[in-house]
Each structure stands twice: as structure tokens, then as C-alpha cells.
Design a protein that fits this description.
This protein is α/β, with parallel strands linked by helices. Helices cover 43% and strands 13% of the residues. The longest helix has 15 residues, at 52-66.
């Protein structure tokens, strides 16, 4: 039996409930899933407030809480490349044998498609409110954000004083 391997690409700044649905969707299509944490070298920026380690912890704890079989998942941090055309080779060097990529990012989809990798869009769950941008904006503007993320993500954000970090970055 050939193992079906996929990669779910995102920045997860932060992981939200839509990401959990994306993982569940991807796991219906593959036996092993790499969760590619992009822009791994970036943090403490308004668009990228959390470190790769913080994001990986959020992902792992949220997956555990959601009852997702983490034996089928590998979380891999990958830095950005200086040239977009090189980024797929970065993913190739940190992962192996994936045949499908799950992403809704047009640039990522194009880059993987140009390399001959099958790309599947993930069905979006309440995209108007379920996005990392929306979560960060709500935190920044002191609006309700907690229901948009798994409890484990809320816990990590509170533990690292992520609300203050985001508000400080946005001022």
C-alpha cells in the first residue's frame, strides 16, 4: 500500500477554528499530513506576531484537544525564501514524498502547480470571521476574538501575553 502524503501550508498567525476544519478535510484525503508553518523566521510583527515555536505549540495542543490523530501529522516550520520561485524547494527539503498540497493562497497554489504538485483548495469555514487577520484585528481593537480560536490557542495567547503583544505592535 502506498502512503498518501499531503502538506497543509499556512502561517497560522494564530491557528483558528477554520484551520482545524482544514486539517480535518486534508486528513480525509491523505494518510500523513505535514502541517507547514510558513514564515517560520518571522515574529513580533503585526502580520506575524507569534514565533514559530508558539505557533507549533498552538497547533499541537489544539489538535490534541480536537481529538485529531496526531500520529498522522508532522508539524514543520519553514522559513520564507528570498525568491518565491525557491520556496517550494524549501518545502521539499523539510518534508518528503508529498503528492498534494492544501492551500487557498493563490501564490502558494501557483508555485506548487508549476512544480507539478496537485493543489487542493480547502473549503473555507466562515471566511469572513475565521482568518488570522480577523483574529489579530479583533485582539488589537479589544473586540471578541476567543470564540474564533480553539481553547488551547486562547490559552497559549493568554500565557504569552499575546493580546498585549499584538496591541503593542499595532500602535
Amino acid at each position: 500500500m502506498t502512503l498518501r502524503v499531503g502538506a497543509l501550508v499556512g502561517r497560522f498567525q494564530p491557528l483558528h477554528n477554520g484551520h482545524i476544519e482544514a486539517v480535518n478535510f486534508a486528513l480525509t484525503k491523505v494518510d500523513l499530513l505535514y502541517i507547514v508553518v510558513g514564515s517560520a523566521e518571522k515574529s513580533h510583527e503585526i502580520r506575524n506576531p507569534f514565533t514559530a515555536g508558539e505557533r507549533m505549540r498552538m497547533i499541537k495542543l489544539a489538535l490534541d484537544d480536537s481529538g485529531i490523530d496526531c500520529h498522522r501529522i508532522m508539524i514543520v516550520p519553514i522559513p520564507d525564501a528570498e525568491a518565491h520561485s525557491v520556496w517550494v524547494s524549501y518545502v521539499d527539503s523539510y518534508t518528503m514524498n508529498y503528492s498534494v498540497v492544501f492551500t487557498n493562497d493563490p501564490l502558494s497554489a501557483r508555485l506548487f502547480s508549476e512544480k507539478g504538485v496537485k493543489v487542493l483548495e480547502v473549503p473555507l469555514l466562515r471566511r469572513g470571521s475565521l482568518s488570522g487577520t480577523e483574529v489579530r484585528n479583533r485582539i488589537s481593537n479589544r473586540r471578541q476574538w476567543r470564540r474564533l480560536v480553539p481553547n488551547a490557542v486562547e490559552d497559549v495567547i493568554m500565557e504569552i501575553d499575546g493580546e498585549a503583544r499584538i496591541r503593542g505592535l499595532s500602535s
